[in-house]
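Please review this one:
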Amino acid sequence: MAKYNVYAIGAALLDTEVKVTEQFLNDNAIEKGVMTLVDKLRQAELIDALNKENQLQRRQSGGSACNTVVAAANFGATVFFSGRVADDDDGSHFVDDLVKAGVTFHSAPPEPGTTGKCLVMVTADAERTMNTYLGVSEKLSEKEINEEALVDSEWLYVEGYLLTDDAKTTLVKHVVEKAKSAGVKVALSLSDPLVVKNFANNFRTVIDDGIDFIFCNEEESLAFTNTECADEAYKGLTKSTKMFAVTNGSAGANVFDGRTIINVPSIPVDAFDTNGAGDMFAGALLYAFTAGYDLRWSVKLANESAARVVCKFGPRLDARDFMFIKRKFGI
């Protein structure tokens, strides 16, 4: 039996989530609804502007894959996360917060420099806008990869945000090949439609002859397959993966089990903050896979979890939320 249910690699970012107005985005020339990479100076300017607004803030360990494995851990999965942090206060905060959440972190020493940070700005319509300074996480390397833990895992989970440069793409390809050779299943999140569109070749390089599961929303599926309708996108996805899940907000999730596409309805809610919905969906689904539940049941759990997280401020649920979901689903 594998020691870990899920081994994940991703950008180790200290998330700061802030409520903002549409006017704030306009005044600061911030493109709404997407993830934009910024340099250290630009992020400092935005932090100063946000502090003047005095809006509600939350700081915690983050990054897409990090949020996913935290969710899986809260359901009961054993998880391991690899990412690069710096030897600064933010790096210490990241590691402490992650370990408290029940996630095993690699033992490589932190790097000199600045820990990456993601500013998550949420408007009244629940849309999230991210400006990210990667810091030392941009230089994720083999040093942060624990191959012993990797090959002793059931699943490898990779966030698509890593595939925005050739060096990390080469690293991820090596990790994926190592996982495949050890019989570890591989799951990939497409992460963001612009990332998929701009770095399509990197995604193809990592996927190579196919992986086990792709997580995405409908817009990401269209960008990845370069198609204009869902049916064509689904056909395109089957060329790259054995199974997939395409989320589409209130329309629910369409999931391919290797033979047919199953629609699992969403849970009707009034969304407050969509940040973390996809990460929560993936974390719940990975937990359910490793716990032996069938696909339809697993997606129902994932939909419930994502629906509850969009009703809260921040990308995670608290202990009471997880307790409620576990009781509802008999976990």
The mean pLDDT is 92. The first helix runs from residue 22 to 27. The two ends are 21 Å apart (CA to CA). The chain has one domain: 4-11+63-115+135-329.
